[in-house]
Amino acid sequence: MTHNLRYIKQTALLMIVLIITAAGGATGADADGDGVVPLALRAIMDELNRNMRAVTDAVSLENWEQAAITALRIADHPQPPMMEKLRILSFAGSDVRKFKNFNSQTRLAATHLEEVAGKADGQAVIAAFAALQSSCLDCHQDLRKPFKEHFYGRQ
Ligand code: HEC
User: Ligand 1 in contact with 85 (CB < 6 A)?
Assistant: First the structure.
């Protein structure tokens, strides 16, 4: 009996430590100080945004090589850590396929942008950029609101 109780206590303690470690590992800092720690996905999105701006800079300078390199960075954007990915997949539930489709649309559009930038075809780069931006918007219009409500309890 006593032995069992000690075992249960030890297991409970181990689980608490694991949960705290996992939560700490999967989250970043509370940058805007509102007590809600953003998901790693948000930093990934911010980086996508910076890279989109970098593409428009490259187009203005007709620096197609830079546009191609940046498009590749957008296509190969990092993924959230495993724990967070699981949380996102469980949030997506029956919409997992839809979520993944949006993601692959963005990857495809960015890959196409890289291709036409590699050919220094300015007009095609601009058209491909617009298509890429539409792919971002498609996911945002469909999923961002419920996503933020789920993870942050607000929009
Ligand atoms: C598969 C869905 C999906 C795709 C595709 C997607 N996003 Fe997002 N994006 C989200 C979600 C969900 C959020 C909300 C994340 C959060 O607040 O934690 C978000 C948030 C953002 C934000 C706001 C970040 C902030 O600091 O609040 C920016 C900027 C952004 N995305 C840029 C982009 C760009 C640029 C692309 C395309 C190159 C893109 N996203 C493609 C789902 C997507």
Answer: no
Per-residue pLDDT tens over the stretch 16-36:
444 444 554 444 466 666 677
Structural domain range at position 126: 39-152
Q: Tell me if 91 CB under 6 Å of ligand 1.
A: no
Q: Rounded to two decimals, what is the model's pTM?
A: 0.83
Distance CA 145, CA 43 (A): 17
87 domain residue, yes or no: yes
Burial class for 116, CB neighbours closer than 10 Å (0-12, 13-18, 19+)? buried
Question: What's the number of domains the chain is made of?
Answer: 1
Supply the residue whose CA is at minimum distance from atom 15 of ligand 1: 42
Q: Is ligand 1 within 6 A of the CB of residue 103?
A: yes
